[in-house]
Write a structure and sequence with these properties.
binds 2-phosphoglycolic acid, TIM Barrel, single chain, alpha/beta, 40% helix
Length: 252
């Protein structure tokens, strides 16, 4: 982490949770307190966003979404606009997660349009990038990630852009790149973000995601260009998630 950037710990619930998960959210809000020293976000499935946003009003956890459409409204059956997400209380939206890229063939141009729509709606856009195992084995990890980044980052709105580096092979597998590999990749991403936005790129938060747990969060968050984490499995249970949030707070 760097003192110049506020840490962020974001939970991505993916297609998990239901109305009964309010209990888990309450436990998380109680554990985090109302004015945490890091930004804390939970991104549940769409139908829970309005309810969770209402319950988290004035508390220390913001609510985000996992995807949005790039249009404000219109004939797009099954899609949800960033404007509606903002209207029901979301503060952020994840775009370009590797599961969306793989399951819904989302390409960089589309991810960029979604990120822009998020910014236009007043949301923070968490733009995800990450290489597959085959790409890493072929020595192409950095080239792949930097190409995704340059195709996916919106042109402006830098203050509300967050980047999440998530190696596809580390997601949900319990496997994590070495500290050295995360350090190298995040430094490369930082240089690319500064190339893209100029000096303002130094203010963009770079999250690491992929099998972050309470047991490994501290050493990952201590890396200079890691400004927090995007957490999948370990964000579903309050105890685990709070352990990770506390590892973030310990860096501040
Ligand atoms: P994981 O998922 O923490 O379960 O590996 C991370 C993510 O996909 O955002």
């Amino acid at each position: 982490m760097s003192a110049a950037r506020r840490m962020m710990v974001a939970g991505n619930w993916k297609m998990n949770g239901n109305t009964a998960s309010m209990t888990e959210l309450q436990a998380m809000m109680d554990g985090v307190g109302d004015t945490p020293a890091v930004d804390v976000l939970i991104c549940p499935p769409f139908p829970l966003i309005g309810r969770f946003s209402g319950a988290s009003e004035g508390r220390g956890i913001g609510i985000g979404a996992q995807d949005c459409h790039f249009n404000k409204s219109g004939a797009h059956t099954g899609d949800v606009s960033a404007a509606l997400l903002a209207d029901v209380g979301a503060k952020a939206v994840i775009v370009g997660h590797s599961e969306r890229r793989a399951d819904h063939t989302e390409v960089d141009d589309l991810v960029q349009a979604k990120a822009q729509a998020a910014l236009d709606a007043g949301l923070t856009a968490i733009v995800c990038v990450g290489e597959t195992e085959a790409e890493r084995d072929a020595g192409e990890a950095e080239a792949v990630v930097l190409a995704q980044l340059s195709g996916s980052l919106p042109a402006s709105g830098v203050e509300h852009v967050v980047v999440a580096y998530e190696p596809v092979w580390a997601i949900g597998t319990g496997r994590v790149p070495s500290i050295e590999d995360i350090t190298t990749m995040h430094a490369a991403i930082r240089r690319a973000v500064v190339d893209h936005y100029g000096d303002a790129g130094n203010g963009v938060r770079l999250l690491y995601g992929g099998s972050v747990k309470p047991g490994n969060a501290a050493e990952i968050f201590a890396i200079e260009d890691v400004d927090g984490g995007l957490i999948g499995g370990a964000s579903l249970k309050a105890d685990d998630f709070l352990g990770i949030v506390n590892a973030g707070i310990a860096q501040v």
